[in-house]
């Protein structure tokens, strides 16, 4: 993980290594296989047209499981804010509402989250995000959620609405602005293929009150280097799909 305010260690995650956790329960490993097809159906059409032409389109799709049932207007404002942050990095973010047809859809794949970065490249121009009402008991008090940037199954980003609410109550940042920046931060981990953080910008690990004051009135962007890395990752992913499509012809 994590969007960070100011401690940020998810259950089972090492305190010094960012978001890494190499463990995967047997339950999750088995059940994740049953959910992949459900999620793929939502996202499969994203890059079909682009693979036909081979041109690079810096676009990315986010499927959101709004399990917390946040008001549609609030979620839309947060999504627009996150899209603005990515747009400033040269990336077009598109949103899709995902329906939970099976609780197994929301399992987390903890098997592939090395703290130093993913061994596999991004295999899809999409990410799955769940927004849950409450953080589980024992979850680091000031963490807003976490990302599993290397996960190939289940959700890659989890955000807790009660933690967002706590930040919005104690800082000048409105709820939707906290959520928007949390979305950008966690999705950023997926595109950057890493759980590591920077000293500033939206990928900062620990957010002070001053950071939230800034986020309350403007967007906290990615750094130039992060933008370059994300665009590079997207380009490589699309090139992989183009090559795969060509091989099938
Ligand atoms: Zn983080």
Brief rundown of the structure:
By secondary structure, the chain is α/β, with parallel strands linked by helices.
How does this model look, in words?
Strands 2-1-3-5-4 form a 5-stranded mixed sheet, sandwiched between helices. Residues 4-49 have low confidence and may be disordered. Helix 3 (72-87) packs across helix 5 and helix 4 crosses helix 5 (175-192). Helix 3 (72-87) links the parallel strand 1 (59-65) and strand 2 (92-97). The longest helix is centred in the last third of the chain and has 25 residues, at 224-248. The protein has one domain (26-237): Collagenase (Catalytic Domain) (3-Layer(aba) Sandwich), CATH 3.40.390.10. By secondary structure, it is α/β, with parallel strands linked by helices. The radius of gyration is 17 Å and the shape is globular. Helices cover 41% and strands 11% of the residues. It contains 7 helices and 5 strands; from the N terminus they run ααβαββββαααα. Bound molecules: zinc ion. Zinc ion (ZN) binds at residues 1-3, 185, 189, 197, 205.
Question: Topology, please?
Answer:
Layout: H1 26-43, H2 48-53, E1 59-65, H3 72-87, E2 92-97, E3 126-132, E4 145-147, E5 157-160, H4 161-170, H5 175-192, H6 209-217, H7 224-248
Parallel strand pairs: 1-2, 1-3, 3-5
Antiparallel strand pairs: 4-5
Helix pairs in contact: 3-5, 4-5
The structure holds zinc ion (ZN).
